[in-house]
């Protein structure tokens, strides 16, 4: 008899569990709020939106590549990682964006830019392919190997470089102590030596 009560109790528990499960599954929850097209107030939600981490990583990669592009133009070492990067992915993306913007500003504002443009005016076209001197600042191969070896490997001679890349190569020569003396005549015409 005791065995029958146990089985009966177990069956009752199982039946109760099934009824509860069916009720939970069938409960649609609260009705959604009624919205009309004339309402202009935004609806608020309690849950914060979840950031799309893949998208943020792609944005960071794009900003990183942009920063590297300008660092290569200047011949500066590439920034592989941010110093003290923020923990929040969105803030990290913004930090890379700021770095890319800073590098762009530095790259387009070449030191001695007016001097390089003056020398160019007396030298040749930015696309001058005639050996032994190439480009708008008439750089020979040894000069290009010394001050822009990476560009020479990637793009060929200076006539294939942008004017900005040519000016940065000349700026590296200037900073190395050569000044404007690789262009003795045109630097004199420009009043630089």
What does this entry look like structurally?
The structure is a single chain. Among the domains are: 54-81 and 92-108, no CATH class; 113-189, Lysozyme, CATH 1.10.530.10. 59% of the residues lie in helices and 0% in strands. The protein is built from 8 helices and no strands. It is an all-alpha fold. It has helices at 2-26, 53-74, 89-108, 113-122, 141-147, 149-155, 163-178, 184-189. α2 packs parallel to α3, α5 (141-147) crosses α6 (149-155) and α5 (141-147) packs across α7. It is rod-shaped, with a radius of gyration of 34 Å.
Question: Helix and strand succession?
Answer: HHHHHHHH
Helix fraction bin: 55-70%
Give the number of DSSP strands: 0
Q: Which class of secondary structure composition applies to the elements?
A: mainly alpha
The CATH class name of the domain at 113-189 reads Mainly Alpha
How far from one another are the termini?
Answer: 117 Å
Shape, per Cα inertia axes: rod-shaped
User: Can you tell me the CATH topology of the domain at 113-189?
Assistant: Lysozyme
